[in-house]
From TrEMBL:
Subcellular compartments: Membrane
UniProt entry tagged with the keyword Membrane: yes
Annotated keywords: Membrane, Transmembrane, Transmembrane helix
Name the UniProt record assigns to this protein: Major facilitator superfamily (MFS) profile domain-containing protein
Segments forming domain Major facilitator superfamily (MFS) profile: 81-493
Entry similarity comment: Belongs to the major facilitator superfamily. Monocarboxylate porter (TC 2.A.1.13) family.
Keyword Membrane on entry: yes
Organism: Henningerozyma blattae (strain ATCC 34711 / CBS 6284 / DSM 70876 / NBRC 10599 / NRRL Y-10934 / UCD 77-7) (Yeast)
Gene, per the UniProt record: TBLA0A10540
Membrane topology qualifier: Multi-pass membrane protein
MF GO annotations: transmembrane transporter activity
Primary location class: membrane
InterPro entries documented for this protein: MFS, MFS_dom, MFS_trans_sf, Proton-linked_MCT
Entries under Gene3D superfamilies matching the protein: MFS general substrate transporter like domains (1.20.1250.20)
Length: 493
């Protein structure tokens, strides 16, 4: 680098690209500290770089958006309250994502005992689909209106859906009350809960999000145990008595948790929108919610695109595995009580998995750790679970390791998205990513249910193989996403 000129309102870095027909790049004027740095200098500057995106031109340079470390509190009372709000909210919202395994196993043997796994799978597939495509609404509401308003809206819908679920008897009722209403409510909640810690943390972002996401694992422990206890309760003239009051108790619990999150969290950054007085209010807000919510420009960034593809395969693998884990266990002649315990073990071992992963990611690089975890996860499913997960003892060991690795990998998905985008665009990029994933997930669980069929033991082996292959594809695309950013250099990324 030949020289640097700096002023109050601009930063100018003069560099050489190394090409014969290009001598230097000068006079880059910015309001938010943007630099051009040659690729060969990336390792030296890596400790100050937060975001990297490739310029597709003849300069052979990298466009570096440096977010000043001082612009993030990296803690403080409000910062840690934001983490607490995210944590307590995820007990309710992400805890719901762990419930399908227990619910699917129960309704298959009771309310929907004459319905195939393929048809039952649509309940949970539609739930995930509605949830993910609604992320785009939740992220946009968060960016434009802050934390509290969307959390309040999401809480009302989420709790209402659980009360509806308690009274479902037919397939269409489960789809309407749980899949559509519940997915919509959770789709508003989750982007806000994921995004709020990112406004207060940059250098320690992976650790902050990991601590917050532990709430999801705790929810994954509490809710299956709660439902299991209630599902075993019966009255003489009301066989689904335990189901009804188990779901209602769950609804009251989530209401308390989400109200605590609402009171604790507060946005630090709210997007300022300048409204044209000539545009009617309804058109203005429709534009914000329906058009600005999808980040089309982000799809021009190849790093972001490959991150989205990698996340798709991770989501497919993990959601399919968790949803049918209870049924898989019973297919191996394991009792329902032990099947519920195995589902709970996934969440228990996920607690240290999430925290340790976040700590390692901030220390050694977010993509580096994600790739390592995904590699181990793939090997576990294809080399251990597929051939040896046929008895209770083996499953205890395999699922314990699976819970640790899968929770760690899952925690890194929003962090990897944040690694290739700026903080002010994180919520909309994250929501756009899950909007796309939602359409893929629409067929994931029914497709996995089709693989399982009517529950033959051989078909359940195909289900494990399918999850393992999806994890392998996720590994491949995470490697490609990293390559597009820093090639194969051994740097912290």
């Amino acid at each position: 680098m030949n020289g640097v000129e700096m002023s109050n309102d601009s930063v100018i870095w003069d560099i050489h690209s190394g090409r014969k027909n290009l001598t230097s790049i000068k006079s880059i004027e910015l309001k938010s500290s943007i630099f051009h740095i040659h690729k060969n200098q990336l390792e030296d500057k890596h400790d100050i770089i937060d975001k990297v995106s490739t310029i597709k031109d003849k300069t052979d340079t990298l466009f570096i958006c440096k977010e000043e470390k001082n612009s993030f509190p990296e803690g403080g009372l409000r910062g840690w309250l934001a983490v607490f709000a995210s944590f307590i909210g995820m007990v309710a919202s992400y805890g719901t994502m762990y419930a399908p395994g227990v619910i699917e196993n129960y309704i298959k043997e009771n309310q929907l005992n004459d319905t195939s796994s393929f048809e039952i799978g649509w309940i949970f597939s539609l739930y995930i689909f509605i949830c993910f495509i609604t992320f785009i609404l939740g992220g946009t509401l968060f960016d434009n209106f802050g934390f509290k308003k969307p959390i309040l809206i999401g809480t009302i819908i989420h709790v209402g859906s659980l009360f509806s679920l308690a009274n479902c008897r037919e397939l269409w009722q489960f789809i309407l009350g749980y899949s559509i209403l519940g997915g919509f409510g959770n789709g508003i909640l989750i982007p806000c809960l994921i995004s709020i810690p990112s406004q207060y943390f940059n250098r320690k972002r992976a650790l902050a999000i990991s601590i917050a996401s532990i709430g999801g694992s705790i929810g994954g422990i509490i809710i299956p145990i709660l439902l299991r206890k209630f599902f075993s309760m019966h009255r003489l003239n009301q066989l689904d008595y335990g189901f009804i009051w188990g779901i209602r108790t769950w609804a009251f619990l989530d209401l308390v948790l989400l109200l605590l999150a609402l009171m604790s969290g507060q946005s630090r950054i709210i997007k300022e929108n300048v409204k044209d007085s000539n545009i009617p209010s309804w058109k203005y807000y429709c534009k914000i919610l329906l058009i600005d919510g999808f980040d089309y420009k982000g799809l021009k960034d190849v790093r972001y695109v490959f991150c989205v593809i990698a996340t798709i395969f991770t989501e497919v693998s993990l959601k399919a595995a968790v949803t049918y884990l209870g049924s898989y266990c019973t297919s191996k002649d394991i009792s329902n009580s032990n099947a519920y315990l195995i589902i709970t073990i996934v969440s228990i071992t996920g607690i240290p998995g999430r925290y340790i992963t976040g700590y390692l990611a901030d220390k050694f690089g977010r993509y580096n750790i994600t790739i390592l975890y995904t590699l181990f996860l793939t090997l576990l499913m294809l080399v251990d679970w597929f051939p040896f997960g046929t008895n209770l003892t083996n499953l205890y060991v395999i699922i314990s390791i699976y819970g640790f690795l899968s929770s760690g990998a899952y925690t890194m998905l929003p962090v990897c998205c944040g690694q290739v985008t700026t903080t002010d665009k994180f919520a909309v990029r994250y929501s756009t990513m899950y909007f796309i994933i939602g359409f893929v997930q629409l067929g994931t669980i029914p497709g996995t249910g089709a693989i399982i069929g009517w529950g033959e033991k051989t078909h359940y082996q195909y289900y494990v193989l399918f999850c393992g292959l999806c994890s392998f594809l996720s590994l491949v695309f995470f490697i490609i996403a990293r390559y597009c950013s820093v090639k194969f250099k051994l740097v912290k990324f």
